[in-house]
């Protein structure tokens, strides 16, 4: 009888110890750089400028990044994405002011926030990196974080990322404005605008001159 009670107590203790571990664990398989890039829709380095907590329990956090180098996806200056607020759900805890190499994807099963398409998580391969704005290079230091992307920043790592693009234009959710034109570089619409404006001035001057001549001729006739 005593042995049965001890066995039950041991089983209960094991369950009590095991449940929190299972509830709070997020297990990620190690990623190679090439696999992390292939599975992502957007890959960029950027600094977290804003963190928004949704007002309903269970809703994800919304992170806004000032991107400095874009390796995959639309080269926008500002990129917004979501991640689960709970690390047990594999949410990635991006820190405001921190710079990261970010892997994000458009996923129908990810945390949904209206107007935000991209999401990322602890198993996506995100890596905290040193401050700066330049492309990652072999030998760059990786800061300690919640990486699932294994290995140092070496030549293979950088080659897998590919050649980055600098952000083309500011955008709130990863879309880019139309191409900018330098001052003085007149497009076809501007040229036709000047032509139409000049023609209007010529017609107005001609009409005023003709009216003046008619008035002069009428005055001479009355004499």
From TrEMBL:
Residues spanning the membrane: 191-213
Q: Where is the signal peptide?
A: 1-25
Keyword annotations: Membrane, Signal, Transmembrane, Transmembrane helix
Domain of life of the native organism: Bacteria
Protein name per its UniProtKB record = Tissue inhibitor of metalloproteinase
Q: What species is given as this protein's source? A: [Actinomadura] parvosata subsp. kistnae
């Amino acid at each position: 009888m005593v042995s049965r009670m001890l066995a039950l107590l041991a089983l209960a203790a094991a369950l009590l110890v095991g449940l929190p571990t299972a509830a709070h664990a997020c297990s990620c398989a190690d990623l190679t750089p090439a696999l992390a890039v292939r599975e992502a829709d957007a890959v960029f380095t950027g600094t977290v400028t804003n963190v928004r907590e949704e007002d309903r329990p269970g809703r994800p956090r919304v992170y806004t990044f000032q991107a400095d180098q874009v390796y995959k996806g639309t080269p926008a200056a500002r990129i917004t994405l979501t991640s689960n607020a709970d690390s047990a759900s594999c949410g990635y805890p991006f820190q405001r002011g921190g710079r990261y190499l970010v892997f994000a994807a458009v996923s129908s099963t990810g945390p949904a926030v209206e107007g935000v398409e991209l999401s990322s998580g602890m198993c996506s391969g995100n890596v905290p990196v040193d401050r700066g704005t330049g492309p990652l290079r072999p030998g760059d230091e990786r800061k300690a974080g919640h990486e699932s992307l294994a290995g140092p920043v070496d030549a293979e790592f950088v080659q897998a990322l590919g050649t980055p693009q600098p952000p083309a234009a500011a955008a709130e959710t990863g879309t880019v404005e139309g191409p900018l034109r330098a001052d003085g570089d007149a497009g076809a619409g501007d040229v036709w605008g000047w032509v139409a404006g000049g023609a209007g001035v010529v017609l107005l001057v001609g009409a005023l001159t003709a009216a003046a001549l008619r008035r002069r001729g009428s005055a001479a006739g009355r004499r």
